[in-house]
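Methods: example folding runs. The two proteins below were folded one after another, and each record is reproduced exactly as written to the output file, sequence line first and structure-token line second.
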Amino acid sequence: MELNLFKVQNVIRSTSMDGQIEGLAIGGRSLGLWNYKVAHDLKGAPERNKLREEPIKGLRFDGQSYLAVDRSNYQDIVDEFYFKLTFRPARPDGVLLFIGDQASTDYAALEIRNGYLTYSFNLGGKTVSLESSETVPMEALTTVEIKRDGRYGEMSVNGQGVGSVTSEGDMEQLSVGTELYIGGYIEDEMPTSEVQDTNFAGNNS
């Protein structure tokens, strides 16, 4: 999983994902998946047989697990961000990425809904979202990229643009806490009802 963050704030309604994650980068800086703040029910996953600069063992998410990373050590994501995630889902629903907390209605989220990738964010007004035109294949690798620059956001899947969206109003910053959640959220504590309460099941790369 590669997450290049420039500034963001998000909240998602999902508990965990069922799948696997192999690596993560924030703002172009590699993050070993052992360098986390909180890990819940995570298991190691076999690495892909592929040469890479810094081999990182992946993690498998079973639909109840999630990973919380302290983003304060990385580039700020309040004004803009860029995330790139490669994952292998085991089921067609679940939260892949979530940024947000109970103290604010602001959030940003990436999730799988009925097999479709959905990217949404709220800067304090109305939620805006993008959805892939095709479902993602189960037990196969998919790469998704999401960006936000102020009120503007866009998403691409496997290198193909899905579309862009611009939120209404004057708010351009995302106000959230210091944790970045991967694969889901704390059970029954999702800050917004606009995101599903289902964690990811599968693998992230």
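Second run, written to the same file directly after the first:
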Amino acid sequence: MEAAEGSMDELGARSVFTAPRRDIDTEFTVKRSRFIGSVRTVLSAEEAAALIKDFPLLYPKANHHCWAYRVGIDSPLEHCSDAGEPAGTAGRPILGTIKRHLLDNTLIVVTRYFGGVKLGAGGLVRAYTDCVAQALLHAPKVQLQRMATLQCLVPYALEGLLRREIEAAGAELLGVQHGSLVTLQLRLPQAQASAFVQRINDLGQG
């Protein structure tokens, strides 16, 4: 009986990360300027980029769509944009707020409708920071686990034993193929993967 670690997600070595539980959109007004803070969970820079492109379509009359995202865990990829606001007044405050809330795999876009009153650099920094803080206040957070996908090959006589081990481990059976051997694919938390593989291989040698 042989078990091998197959594909895993690519979020980093840490097995647990914190992200928004669901999408959140909140509004915030400062001196007649309307700010809409949108919080999204993303798992890649490509996903973040695709979502960012949606906002000018959702709010076509807005003046700015400033954003920041943080993707990955151990060596996160971080990017931000002022989207036409004075340099350093929007993107960096958004990113800084994401980091202060210890969030991973998070995109925040702040859409601004200019209200006719200039806020100044300091006022913009405060406005974008406060808008994001308000959005995150309403965004429930959840700890997510990285998952590992395993593939196990066993003789037909041991299929029942392996199925019982999968059930006992609380793993999800993804598929079964019957050929010269039985191939079972399963998914379980990455933190449990190495111990499961070792146990299955030890049982196969017993």
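Comment on the second run: The first strand starts at residue 2 and ends at 8.
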